[in-house]
């Protein structure tokens, strides 16, 4: 099994080099990209099944001890998120192959290799067992996101790309300072060792480390008040790129927040996390209500939904963390699908501004269906996956007695539904509008629609298997809060 | 851990942060270079007391801690690559607008204007006032200097208008 852990990180990076070298032969390049992504998806599924059955798998790179070397750890949490993330990237690459034939599409010679680098970075970030490798993984993800965002070189992309790059570079610098602080306080960057040593520090130092990393990871995850770069930059990229960003980048930030704050026992930060969570939900969704462009509305929803996951973590109970994990599992595909269907609207109409499109419900019923299903799920209506995840969070909140955050989260849900209704009214009802662009080719439409359909089916599957998923999430939460299984597996001789 | 190192970290980080708050990307690049140095110094400082080079075997004196040095090297390489990327970004911005200033979010300003009480008549709803890059057509009347640079007249830079794909 340890071989699989190494493969899911190395395979995409090697394939990225190949895809770059074969950039001039489109069929070969696309073949390599898709084959690699499918292979990594399959490998991560095998890993998930194995971890679910036999428990955590640990790989010590080069055989070094955890004090000195890099360890890659696949526990149930990591394996779950890894599989969902890689599967999502694969579907988006299918969409991108279709979209590249249209004027709004990204340059495939750039996107294929860079998307593979991003995949490698995501795998590494999810699997890594030490803080510094996490920094390297974040840089892999961010560098590829910089390129993906700006490679077309259009004015809006360069403008928003500058904000995006500067803010993320600054957060990365803070991350390095954080690594230095942690190393000088504990003498290690390995998470399992940190789990033993950080709780022994004086409470002031613990609090300082916790707050420092809350800012660092919070910037990546776009929590309030560190989110303003997100709705500015995401909508300017081609849809396939935005879909990956929305589905994965912030979610990896949340994954790391959950991982780091549970393993270092930062329970004292719980109330602060709840306040931040509530503000993130409400400010995000209010921002969405003010917008009049599908992609911008959805970008603000990315921010808003982050709040729910932080809420689950902030409760620091098994039910709360399990809710956050389930919400994370539901968000990655749903958020991606929302942007993909937004891309279908844009491809069909040439724009996604609400006032310029209308009547798609009659003229393009397929797009309407592909938008409506994940939108209802996002708003948290039964029987979709969003309902299951939100119910779990609300339950956990009531159990803990945190009524205020429960009320805020419900208000946030209602406002989410309102802004989804706004998109529905603007885009799908009303008088049909004529497309502003010449229609893209049938093949590309077929590719994009089928990729979106696969993704919608995926999100519906989550609702169907919600029972087993909830059991898994509870197991994950138990492991995260208990901490001993992780520490023992990593440090075992 | 010497006081000089700590002061160095603090000074570099402060100067770097000050430069990053500027609008000009060339200042921001220098700011990040300074902050990058500060992080490297901080990592070295975190490694504890100084000592001999941790290479030779058989050395029985006190060796410096090699782990933070490995981390610092990685950090240097990454910040080097990113500096180049930001420079490329600044170059592209200069081609487009004639300078390398970070601009405001146009769409955000437009939304703010719509919701700023200008909602009751159709005029302020005129979406032609901003450049919607997604539509691939840029109206003649737009004011941002990007168009001036593109059409080649009155551009403050001496770079010829060029398309990203041309290079």
Architecture overview:
The complex is a heterodimer of chains A (493) and B (167). Chain A is mainly alpha-helical and 493 residues long. In chain A, 78% of the residues lie in helices and 2% in strands. Chain A has a two-stranded antiparallel sheet with strand order 1-2. In chain A, helix 12 (294-315) packs antiparallel against helix 17 (403-428) and helix 13 crosses helix 19 (466-482). Chain A is globular. The two termini of chain A are 18 Å apart. Chain B has helices at 3-20, 25-46, 66-97, 106-114, 145-151. With 167 residues, chain B is mainly alpha-helical. Chain B starts with a helix and ends in a 16-residue tail after the last helix. Helices cover 53% and strands 0% of the residues of chain B. Chains A and B meet through helix 5 and helix 6 of A and helix 1, helix 2, helix 3 and helix 4 of B.
Oligomeric state: heterodimer
Please give the most extensive interface between any two protein chains, plus how many residues each contributes.
A-B, 55 and 53 residues
Shape of chain B: elongated
**How much of the polypeptide of chain A forms β-strand, as a percent range?**
under 5%
Strand content of chain B: under 5%
Give a short synopsis of this structure.
Chain A is mainly α.
Properties at a glance:
heterodimer; A: about 500 residues; mainly alpha; two-stranded antiparallel sheet; 20 helices; 2 strands; globular; B: about 170 residues; elongated; disordered C terminus
